[in-house]
C-alpha cells in the first residue's frame, strides 16, 4: 500500500478511536455502582484494531459530500458502528459462542472482567449506538430524518435479518458438523454475518453526506463486494497466519468443524475470489471522482495476507 494511503487510513482510525472514548454516553461517573460495566465497555473499545467500518463510513462521507474536512458529528455517528461491531466481538468471544480467550492481542472482555460483566458490556454497546444517533439529532448536528434513517440502517443490518441472522447460520454449522455445507450457504452466511455491518458503514457515510439514492446504491454494491472479500481473506488468514500477527487465536474454525471458504474453494481459489470481489468494488467506486482511496482500500482488504 502507498504510504499516503496508509497514513490516511491510520489517521481516520485514530480519530475514531479518540472520539469513541470521549462520547458522553461512555462517561464513567465517580462512585457509580454500575461503573464496572462502563469500564468493561471502554476496555473492549480501546483494544486497538483497524476500525475498518468507521474508516469506510468517513471515507464514503468525504467522497459523496465533496468536503475535505470531516465534521465531528460524522465521527460520532461512525462510533455507533464501532460500538455495534465491538458488542458482537464481545459476545462472539464468550464460552457460549466461539470461546476465544484472546482478542486483538490481549484477554477478551469476558476473560478480563468475567463472563457476567462481559455479557452486560456487550449488551450495553448494543444499545448505546441508538442513544448516540438520537442525541446527534436532538443537538441539531444531524436532521431527525437522517437520524431515523441511520437508526433503521444500523438496526436492520445488525439485527435479525442481518448480522445476527448470519451468526445463527454460523452456529447451525457448528451444531451440524456432519452436514455438507454448500458454497452458496457459506456465501449467504458471510454476507449476513460480516457483510451487513460493512454495508451499514458505507450507507452511514452516504446518508450523512445527503447522497442521492443512486450513490447510496453504489455504496451498497461497493460494500457487498468488500464485505465478502474481507470474510474470505479472514478464512485464509485463519489457516496461514499466526496468533501474533492476527492478535487472536487461529485455526478455531477447523477445531469446531466449521466450513470456510479456504475449505470449499482451496487457498488459491479463495484468494482468486477475494481478488475478483475487490476488483468489482474498485470498479464501482471509481465511477466517482475522488474514489481513489476507497478503490485502493478495496484492493488492500483482499491482500491483507500478502
What does this structure look like?
The chain is globular. The chain has a single domain, classed as Farnesyl Diphosphate Synthase. It has helices at 3-20, 35-45, 52-65, 72-93, 109-113, 115-138, 144-158, 163-175, 183-208, 213-240, 243-246, 252-255, 261-285, 292-302; strands at 102-103, 106-107. It has 306 residues and is mostly helical. The mean pLDDT is 90. The chain has 14 helices and two strands; from the N terminus they run ααααββαααααααααα. Strands 1-2 form a two-stranded antiparallel ribbon. The longest helix has 28 residues, at 213-240. A hairpin with a 2-residue loop joins strand 1 and strand 2. Helices cover 72% and strands 1% of the residues.
Amino acid at each position: 500500500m502507498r504510504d499516503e494511503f496508509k497514513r490516511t487510513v491510520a489517521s481516520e482510525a485514530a480519530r475514531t478511536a479518540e472520539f469513541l472514548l470521549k462520547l458522553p454516553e461512555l462517561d464513567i461517573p465517580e462512585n457509580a455502582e454500575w461503573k464496572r460495566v462502563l469500564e468493561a465497555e471502554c476496555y473492549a473499545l480501546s483494544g486497538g484494531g483497524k476500525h475498518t467500518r468507521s474508516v469506510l463510513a468517513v471515507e464514503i462521507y468525504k467522497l459523496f459530500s465533496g468536503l475535505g474536512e470531516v465534521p465531528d458529528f460524522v465521527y460520532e455517528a461512525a462510533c455507533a458502528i464501532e460500538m455495534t461491531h465491538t458488542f458482537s466481538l464481545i459476545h462472539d468471544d464468550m464460552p457460549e459462542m466461539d470461546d476465544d480467550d484472546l482478542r486483538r492481542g490481549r484477554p477478551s472482555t469476558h476473560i478480563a472482567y468475567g463472563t457476567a460483566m462481559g455479557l452486560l458490556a456487550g449488551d450495553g454497546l448494543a444499545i448505546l449506538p441508538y442513544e448516540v444517533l438520537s442525541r446527534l439529532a436532538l443537538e441539531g448536528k444531524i436532521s431527525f430524518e437522517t437520524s431515523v434513517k441511520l437508526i433503521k440502517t444500523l438496526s436492520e443490518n445488525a439485527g435479525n435479518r442481518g448480522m445476527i441472522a448470519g451468526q445463527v447460520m454460523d452456529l447451525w454449522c457448528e451444531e451440524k458438523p456432519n452436514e455438507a455445507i454448500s458454497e452458496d450457504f457459506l456465501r449467504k452466511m458471510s454476507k449476513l454475518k460480516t457483510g451487513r455491518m460493512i454495508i451499514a458503514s458505507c450507507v452511514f457515510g452516504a446518508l450523512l453526506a445527503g447522497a442521492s439514492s443512486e450513490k447510496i446504491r453504489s455504496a451498497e454494491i461497493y460494500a457487498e463486494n468488500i464485505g465478502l472479500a474481507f470474510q474470505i481473506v479472514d478464512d485464509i488468514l485463519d489457516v496461514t497466519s499466526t496468533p501474533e500477527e492476527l492478535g487472536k487465536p487461529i485455526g478455531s474454525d477447523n477445531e469446531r468443524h466449521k466450513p470456510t471458504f479456504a475449505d470449499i474453494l482451496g487457498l488459491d481459489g479463495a484468494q482468486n475470489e477475494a481478488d475478483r470481489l475487490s476488483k468489482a468494488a474498485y470498479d464501482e467506486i471509481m465511477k466517482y471522482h475522488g474514489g481513489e482511496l476507497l478503490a485502493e482500500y478495496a484492493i488492500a482488504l483482499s491482500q491483507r495476507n500478502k
